[in-house]
């Protein structure tokens, strides 16, 4: 069989080298029952996930020269459930932070939420309507560091108040990042988030908008989470919530940011889907 033509989303050798140790270690811990090494190369499985992330295609619309949808979906779900996706993401984040002269773990995070329309077929029990933004679907909440790298992601029905998202985010941040002592939030978050942060040993500061500002004015330090939300919009699978499970939607965030970080670490330019 001739070698397939590459897609722009494919991992280069340098980018694959950043991910391969984790995948190979996982594969060694999960040998096939029959003893064979598997029908599909792990690099191609990851390439298929990144292709879907960038293009937003359905499982059955994955190109025929990539591994079949059933195999790709199996690994996506397995890595989602056992935390391999987040392990890859966290290891890459530590590398990016170190390259930028920072400690592996942050001391400050920035929280924000984004409401997204849900696609047809997403269970109604996992969605709602954001009364403020008039968006029916889900609410994606992020905690990022000062570089805009994701520390934690949470997906809830869009009807959930920012307070609920903030509390769950702070719990996740505190559980995995004991170094975090401060969080910045906007005025959509209320006192309950501030109080919950205090219980966790995290000072939550509500950054208020200057009443004299007209139009969109980035707020110092808080703007990085808006930038991260914007970056996620380059991944069509994340523009709308297509996932049946909220945990799958969270996993998509980790894969997308992992894609971005491998490019940053190797100096690879991210190709745009916009027409010239």
Question: Could you describe the 3D structure shown?
Answer:
The protein is α/β, with parallel strands linked by helices. The chain has a domain at 104-210 and 217-241: Nucleotidyltransferase, domain 5 (2-Layer Sandwich). 44% of the residues lie in helices and 14% in strands. It contains 9 helices and 6 strands. The protein has helices at residues 13-29, 42-55, 69-82, 84-99, 162-176, 191-200, 223-232, 236-239, 246-266; strands at residues 108-117, 128-130, 135-144, 150-157, 182-185, 203-206. Strands 1, 2, 3, 4, 5 and 6 form a 6-stranded mixed beta sheet that branches. A hairpin with a 5-residue loop joins strand 3 (135-144) and strand 4. The longest helix is centred in the last third of the chain and has 21 residues, at 246-266. The relative contact order is 0.15.
The CATH C-level name of the domain at 104-210 and 217-241 is Alpha Beta
How much of the sequence is in beta strands? 5-15%
Distance between the termini: 34 Å
Largest sheet: 6 strands, mixed
Query: By CATH's scheme, which homologous superfamily of the domain at 104-210 and 217-241 applies?
Result: Ribonuclease H-like superfamily/Ribonuclease H
Radius of gyration: 19 Å
CATH topology name of the domain at 104-210 and 217-241: Nucleotidyltransferase, domain 5
Total beta strands: 6
Count of DSSP helices? 9
Average pLDDT taken over every residue? 91
**Judging by the overall fold, what is the CATH architecture of the domain at 104-210 and 217-241?**
2-Layer Sandwich
Helical/strand content category: alpha/beta
Helix content: 40-55%
Q: Unreliable segments (pLDDT under 50, ≥5 consecutive)?
A: none
The coarse overall form would be: globular
The secondary-structure element order is HHHHEEEEHEHEHHH
